[in-house]
């Protein structure tokens, strides 16, 4: 039996202490009601089990319990004969992480690694210290616990491009089955077509609540000549209401989706609050285990009979490879680390989606997501009892649009800008958590937004889909507990500035449609600090603006690039095996050779599904090695399910 009062009090303490919500007096009632009406979800016995003691040996060790690691742990432990250890540096989720509208309150909390980029002169000028905040999940479920839950697969051309770069088996036709494998599509209309499926672990659903602005955005798109379509289906260009990885209006993190249902498997051990400090590699360059530190400073060595799988994400994975002696020889030598495998691509090729922040459009009606108005007792009870209402909103994200600027090819359905169209903007919480989450300086926020605090607005956030700028990640020291140095190099390629500039202009055009003008839509014209010397609405002004409020969308990727052996910057091969080693793979967003055209959580889950199949196929072949067959695929790359017949599924 759940002690409702105890659970609610614990969550309240976490909420008020971490997110500064003590002034929201509805919180105790909200948490009590939420726990009472959803006790099955919040029973601690329904969460992944944190093992008290870790065995000395497992078949597979998965490092990182985020989106990719959760999938891998589920799929590999489905084979009863295999013992799997999943290691996560963070702890459990809480009640508060489930509430979609509160996602920005999690930034900078104990669930966040709290990374920051190094100071820049090309971007993030409105941020404290000219440093962008890189929120990454330090919790079971990883960044899927902190993100905005958007389900976007990217464009078919993205994956065909991966294949054309020498990554066999990664074309759109190859990866689509793995998107479908995970999906449990709750929209009955979409579930009927070949691009969607029901029955998977990952729930995908429409928002249970929208403001009138959501539909108005669709109408604006039609006025601009765009189709309303399923952006995860046959074509991407056009407008659509977002779909979310939520279940009955609550966040469905990858831990909830993939780990909670299999928590009682005896062959799956999950070690929380445990950080891997080194991957152990023998003289034959084979990964045979890990060194780790558990909560309380307890150190341990754990061996892997078959493979070590690194799923720490685009920051942690390259950092751990370098700490283990895999990376650029010169950089490792600077920190006294012996080079075991000289791979210059580790930590290079940093990619991220950035958007132009702060484009707020005032309206005349009280229909937007003003936090002081919608976060109240009535909303809390509606959420707790019916899983509906404004608290199910993902910080106002309602409609998505994919468009092509003049720098792209309109005819090939490979857009270069994504609009995130919202029923809120930076000012909608009165200058509290959005400002903090985006790391804006008080001076910048005060000058631009103070006069419209808590006023009704909608937002347009133009996001560049395939940036050409590339960054790098370096070790700060040989200490595994020190954050690495992050140089994203945003907007260092002139084409990125040009594309974003055109995205801003198209965003302004959305507000000029009749669909939006009927709400009295008008752009908040306040010139931003740092750009006042430039004539407003000129190209020069918008170029300056993008360098001020440079908003990361937290899609860090590419730091362990996948590529053929002929690519000197490739870190993993198309089977996701680290070059120069055996028994070691990287399976997460860091392997992307080119970032996908859209939000990346769904592609990361796909990568993990495909990676899990590669591992299973390889080991059911007797680990006899890979050699090319007449199809150009390695011997281990097979799709037939009869390979599994000699194994027992749980």
- CATH topology heading of the largest domain: Glucose Oxidase, domain 3
- Give the CATH class of the largest domain: Alpha Beta
Indicate the structural class: alpha/beta
Low-confidence blocks of residues:
1-24, 624-646
Keywords: FAD, Flavoprotein
Protein name: Glucose-methanol-choline oxidoreductase N-terminal domain-containing protein
Family: Belongs to the GMC oxidoreductase family.
Cofactor: FAD
Summarize the structure.
The protein contains 19 helices and 26 strands. The protein is α/β, with parallel strands linked by helices.
List its traits.
650 residues, alpha/beta, FAD/NAD(P)-binding domain, Glucose Oxidase, domain 3, 7-stranded mixed sheet, 26 strands, globular, disordered N terminus
Describe this structure in words.
The chain has 650 residues and is of the alpha/beta class. The protein has three domains: 1-46, no CATH class; 47-93 and 255-351 and 557-646, FAD/NAD(P)-binding domain, CATH 3.50.50.60; 94-138 and 208-241 and 353-552, Glucose Oxidase, domain 3, CATH 3.30.560.10. The protein is built from 19 helices and 26 strands. The strands form eight sheets. Strands 1, 2, 11, 12, 13, 14 and 26 form a seven-stranded mixed sheet that branches. Strands 7-19-20-21-18-24 form a six-stranded antiparallel sheet. Strands 5-6-8 form a three-stranded mixed sheet. Strand 1 (57-63), helix 4 (67-77) and strand 2 (84-87) form a beta-alpha-beta unit. The model is unreliable at 1-24 and 624-646 (pLDDT under 50).
């Amino acid at each position: 039996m759940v002690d409702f009062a105890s659970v609610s009090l614990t969550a309240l303490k976490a909420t008020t202490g971490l997110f500064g919500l003590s002034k929201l007096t509805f919180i105790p009632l909200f948490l009590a009601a939420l726990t009472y009406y959803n006790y099955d979800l919040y029973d601690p016995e329904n969460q992944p089990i944190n093992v008290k003691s870790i065995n000395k040996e497992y078949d597979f060790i998965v490092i990182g319990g985020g989106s990719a690691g959760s999938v891998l742990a589920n799929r590999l432990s489905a084979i009863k004969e295999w013992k799997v250890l999943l290691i996560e540096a963070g702890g459990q989720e809480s009640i508060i992480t489930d509430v979609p509208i509160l996602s920005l309150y999690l930034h900078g909390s104990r669930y966040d690694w709290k990374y920051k980029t190094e100071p820049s002169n090309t971007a993030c000028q409105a941020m404290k210290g000219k440093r962008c905040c890189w929120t990454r999940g330090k919790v079971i479920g990883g960044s899927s616990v902190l993100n905005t839950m958007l389900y976007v697969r990217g464009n078919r051309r993205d994956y065909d491009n991966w294949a054309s770069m020498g990554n066999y088996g990664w074309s759109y036709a190859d990866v689509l089955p793995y998107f479908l494998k995970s999906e449990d599509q709750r929209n009955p209309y979409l579930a009927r077509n070949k691009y969607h499926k029901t029955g998977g672990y990952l729930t995908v659903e429409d928002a249970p609540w929208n403001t009138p602005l959501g539909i108005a955005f669709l109408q604006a798109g039609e006025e601009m000549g765009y189709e309303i379509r399923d952006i995860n289906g046959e074509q991407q260009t056009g407008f659509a209401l977002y779909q979310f990885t939520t279940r009955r209006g609550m966040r469905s993190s990858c831990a909830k989706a993939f780990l909670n249902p299999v928590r009682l498997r005896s062959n799956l051990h999950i070690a929380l609050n445990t950080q891997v400090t080194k991957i152990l590699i023998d003289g034959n360059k084979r990964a045979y285990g890990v060194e780790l530190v558990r909560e309380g400073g307890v150190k341990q060595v754990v061996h892997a009979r078959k493979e070590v799988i690194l799923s720490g994400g685009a920051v942690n994975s390259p950092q751990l490879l370098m700490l283990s002696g895999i990376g650029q020889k010169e950089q490792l030598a600077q920190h006294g680390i012996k080079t075991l495998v000289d791979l210059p691509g580790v930590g290079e090729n940093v990619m991220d989606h950035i958007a132009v922040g702060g484009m707020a459009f005032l309206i005349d009606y009280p229909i937007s997501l003003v936090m002081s108005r919608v976060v109240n007792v009535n909303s809390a009870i509606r959420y707790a009892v019916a899983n509906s209402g404004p608290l199910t909103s993902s910080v106002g994200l309602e409609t998505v649009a994919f468009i092509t600027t003049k720098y792209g090819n309109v005819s090939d359905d490979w857009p270069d800008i994504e609009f995130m169209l919202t029923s809120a903007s930076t000012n909608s919480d009165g200058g509290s958590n959005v400002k903090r989450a985006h790391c804006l300086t008080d001076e910048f926020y005060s000058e631009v937004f103070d006069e419209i605090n808590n006023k009704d607005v909608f937002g347009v956030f133009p996001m560049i889909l395939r940036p050409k700028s590339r960054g790098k990640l370096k070790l700060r020291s040989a200490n595994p507990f020190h954050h690495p140095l992050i140089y994203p190099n945003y907007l260092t390629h002139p084409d990125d500035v040009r594309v974003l500039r055109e995205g801003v202009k198209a965003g302004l055009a959305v507000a000029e449609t009749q669909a939006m003008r009927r709400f009295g839509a008008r752009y908040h014209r306040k010139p931003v600090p740092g750009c006042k010397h430039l004539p407003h609405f000129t190209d020069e002004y918008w170029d300056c603006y993008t360098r001020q409020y440079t908003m990361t969308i937290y899609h860090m990727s590419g730091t362990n690039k996948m590529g053929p052996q002929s690519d000197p910057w490739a870190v993993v091969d198309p089977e996701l095996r680290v070059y120069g080693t055996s028994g070691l793979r990287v399976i997460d967003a860091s392997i992307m050779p080119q970032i996908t055209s859209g939000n990346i959580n769904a592609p990361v889950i796909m990568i993990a599904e495909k990676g899990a199949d590669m591992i299973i196929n390889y080991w059911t072949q007797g680990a006899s090695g890979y050699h090319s067959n007449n199809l150009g695929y390695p011997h281990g790359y097979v799709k037939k399910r009869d390979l599994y017949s000699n194994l027992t599924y749980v």
